[in-house]
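Retro notes, item 3 of 5
We never archived the inputs for the LLP complex last cycle. Fixing that now. Sequence and ligand:
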Amino acid sequence: MLYQENPQNLKRTPYYIYHKDILCQTLETLLQSLPPDRKYVVHYAVKANDNIEVLKCIASYGLGADCVSGGEIEKALKAGFEAGKIAYAGVGKRDDEIELAVEKQIFCLNAESEQEIDVISEIAGKIGLTAPVAIRINPNIDAHTHKNITTGTEENKFGIPIDEAVRVAQRIINDPHLRFIGVHFHIGSQITQYSPFIELCNTANKLRQEFADRNIKLGMIDMGGGLGIDYENPEKNTIPDFSGYFSTFANHTSKDIELHFELGRSIVAQMGELITRVLFTKTTPHKYFAIVDAGFTDLIRPALYGAYHKIVNLSSEERTLGKCDIVGPICESSDVFAKDREIPLPQRGDILAIRSAGAYGEVMASTYNARPLIKGYME
Ligand code: LLP
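Structure as it came back at the time:
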């Protein structure tokens, strides 16, 4: 079960551990939470964690995949996701990536500019296939999350402005090399209130009406991802509130529209933890530092977004509690996992678990400071 990593049994730290039982439980709950009277399709956002074992497990539940590069499309196919359930988004798709998507006959390409649509058409024409295209719309909705993970406001580079949606759809419909699938939104990530999703439903409904007024039928609306998780209490809230999430959409859209979702974090975050060893401790007049062998090269979220991750001392839950800065070995002051964190005071050799690290952890790792890429194990 979760959080029972045996300190005697460790692999070479640092590493990620992915708990398969948690992942399976999360996927089962997700599928059970889908409203039975609606046509809802869930794509797993591969960018959250593309570890092959993780992908294989998710694919085995029949989910689709949401990819943002040719590399992700190839990985998703290799893991067993059906081509016909792969959506491909991304503001900058290379020609060879578009070619791959068209040739593999994926579900749809979410186009983010008119120039991109021209290129998709040209490539599809050359290949002799019709490319399925949805328009990514920038709905100008503030998701009230961290500014680096807000994607749906006018300030962001993503999507086509909503006022241009109808004209761009007409352009796709009139193109013999393209098939118009619908529209796509994604307003941001780690969204913990439902109000931005309600706002998104209202925007989508209005747009759908505008399309209907011009006799354009939307085959589907892709609402993107963004459902947040509880980083503070991962043991208590291991499985996100999928039924609250899907019923928010069901309560604010009509029954006859097919909705797609692209969930990443909510599916994989809580099944993963980063296991790291305390290399040294250091006391200064101001601080108690625990210097661990993982750094922001292994988990960048705290350094990049100031993100909170719960940290547990697996070697001793009993030791005296104390305030401690848990820092990595990288030569940058931002290499800090936690500041003034109350924890059983770590000592050299202790093993710490950084929780809720299954999403945007291993995938964002780098080799800065010539550090080897960290491994992820599924257990
Ligand atoms: N669809 C699109 C078009 C996206 O851009 C994203 C995430 C998702 C779906 C999945 O969103 P999720 O369900 O995971 O919230 N590295 C950041 C998160 C970046 C999210 C980027 N886009 C972090 O560590 O918090």
